[in-house]
Amino acid sequence: MKIFNDLAEWQRFRDELTPDLSLGFVPTMGNLHRGHASLMKQSKQENDCTIVSIFINPTQFNQTEDFIHYPRTLDNDLDILTQCSVDFCVLPNDKQIYADGFKFQIHDASQPQRMEAHHRPGHFTGVLTIVMKLLTLVRPHRAYFGEKDYQQYQLIRDMVSAFFMNIDVKACPTIREASGLAYSSRNNRLSAEQRLRAESFAQTFHQSSMPINQLYDTLEKLGISIEYLEEHENRRFISVNIDNIRLIDNYVLLKNIEFKD
Ligand code: PAF
């Protein structure tokens, strides 16, 4: 795997890649897990080469504490990239990425702001801005995002379309532990007791036949504090706090099947 710490070096290398070679891109903030590995696997299947970026983007953390405590696990991440046979890895730094001092930003101005956008003010401005910068630098043919962050995927897909970027934005299925809990870097912060609650949250949330009001009450009784629980476009979305650890999830609701005589 070829590692680029210097963006100018990467840009020179990118200019020299054969134009008919397809490039798949998986942007990450490191602390890689099986969810990320599945994105890399899909990219490997669909492209000639795969590139992963690792950059802990400070502008998308609406709470400084979260940024400070975000796990920095570069050596392990690089091992995972090697195991996944990733071709290239870019490791930009803050100075290179935000040489403009975050003067130029991509902002989703739609109103009302819902779910993550409502509960994490500024978060998506940070996400969209960094993803725009990374897509411009990497110039991939396809870019891969996990469905766990479905709202993020939708916004990136719509941004790419709004700015006429010729990139196929792919949503990949959420990867779950045996308990049903979605893989997330935040899971590492759960204590044994919190993990049990997180697992019962995942199991309860996935009972899609449970009406939303009943689901709300059942989760609260399990000691899970709900930030939002909403349904949009046939998908059920949730954000919960297990003490100070915030988890999100979503799934497609099965449509009611009408039987005819
Ligand atoms: O989903 C993530 O890990 C981040 O939001 C992303 C897309 C890498 C942007 O920093």
Structural descriptors:
single chain, 261 residues, alpha/beta, Rossmann fold, Pantoate--beta-alanine Ligase, Chain: A,domain 2, 2 domains, six-stranded parallel sheet, three-stranded antiparallel sheet, 10 helices, globular, binds pantoate
Q: Write out the CATH superfamily name of the largest domain.
A: HUPs
**What small molecules are bound in this structure?**
pantoate
Low-confidence stretches: none
N→C terminal distance: 60 Å
The share of residues in extended strands comes to: 15-25%
* Quaternary structure classification: single chain
Mean pLDDT: 96
The percent range for helix content is 25-40%
**CATH architecture assignment of the largest domain:** 3-Layer(aba) Sandwich
Structural class by sheet pairing and helices: alpha/beta
CATH fold-type name of the largest domain: Rossmann fold
Radius of gyration: 19 Å
Shape: globular
Order of helices and strands: EHEHEHHEHHHEHEHHEEE
- Tell me the count of domains: 2
Main sheet properties? 6 strands, parallel
Number of helices: 10
Q: In which order are the strands of the major sheet placed? A: 1-4-3-2-5-6
Number of strands: 9
